[in-house]
Amino acid sequence: MKKIQIIEASKHVGEKVRIGAWIANKRSSGKIAFLNLRDGSAFFQGVVVKSEVSEEVFQTAKNITQESSVWVEGTIQEDTRSKFGYEIHVDSLEVIGESVDYPITPKEHGTEFLMDNRHLWLRSSKQHAVMQVRNEIIRATYEFYNKEGFTKIDPPILTGSAAENTTELFHTEYFDRDAFLSQSGQLYMEAGAMALGKVFSFGPTFRAEKSKTRRHLIEFWMIEPEMAFMDQDDSLEIQEKYVAYLVQSVLDNCDHALDVLERDKDLLRKYTSLPYPRISYDEAIELLNKNDFDVTWGEDFGSPEETFIAEQFDKPVFILNYPKAIKPFYMKPHPTREDIVLCADLIAPEGYGEIIGGSQREDDYDALRKQLEAFDLDVSEYEWYLDLRKYGSVPHSGFGLGLERTVTWISGTEHIREAIPFPRLLNRIYP
Fold this sequence. Notes:
Elements: E1 2-3, E2 16-28, E3 32-38, E4 43-49, H1 55-63, E5 69-78, E6 86-97, H2 111-116, H3 118-121, H4 125-147, E7 151-152, E8 158-159, E9 171-174, E10 177-181, H5 186-196, E11 198-206, E12 219-228, H6 232-253, H7 255-260, H8 265-270, E13 278-280, H9 281-290, H10 303-311, E14 317-320, E15 333-334, E16 337-341, E17 343-348, E18 353-360, H11 365-374, H12 383-390, E19 396-402, H13 403-411
């Protein structure tokens, strides 16, 4: 008898198979028991008919508890009533590990309770579907950058300097000196681009930002490409192509997960159409002021402003060329205006906010050194970074995409805490 995973059921219709699974839920009557089975690949129904199995098997099915683990043997059949489309008619049921008083029952539970039991909440069908979408985005990311001729570079997690705001760094000791958990791999990726042309990183980043919004995590994952001989316009083309590729990959490979999440697939398909609209920061300020937002030039946008701007378009939208004063030291000034820089944020539709931040990098040695001094940064900590402008400097650009924000948007999930297996929030480091 062949041992299979639930996700493979369509290939074994009419065959007798063996599956290792957990009991997600069950219901039974005097003559039939329905077991909601999950094995990590998918969920489907096991049907146990009293007249077709031994009394021992039927009593086991009738009395088995939620999240007990089992070996199931039976015949795969089509099930047109379910979204999954298949079920197993059970002949044999063997308990592997009994589950007693499983805390997450089919009733409603509060968010804090579910977060305290995140290690168990991950087993639910919705959380399972979100993790499938996350996995597909990760898989598609590697596929996209490999196709585009990028080389993966792994920047360090422990660093001696900041890429952006030093107040958002987690401090630690590195033997006899200070060190910090990385808030971005970007500076190191620039070195990689000078060596390999087009590179990307994919790793954890940390922000000691005391924020409780539905868009923020303390620890999250970033995809950070960096490209030599590319200006900001070149970078924008890569960004929109990449995001459309991710959405299409999820549509192609996570159909059932999107059904579980009740995600509007027709809406997602709109996001695969290129190009994405673009609006300058100046135009965004004008748009907001005309619609009763109290925002003055030089201020950054918050969630309400980003959501309103996104609502004016039916696809992700780039906001271009923010004021120099509110952006990091490494961004290149606009060629005709010193008060703005060559940068862009990509704002996702449906109120999900910024998913990408990117810019053309300052490639002039003297100008970058002045910026470091203006930001009151220790220039000696950045000598290696300045070297990139001393030895064959070229125009180069890059960006960072937040994995969890992208998962939240594509999956249609309300809060970013569900887009990562074990979220680290302002007041949560358990479990």
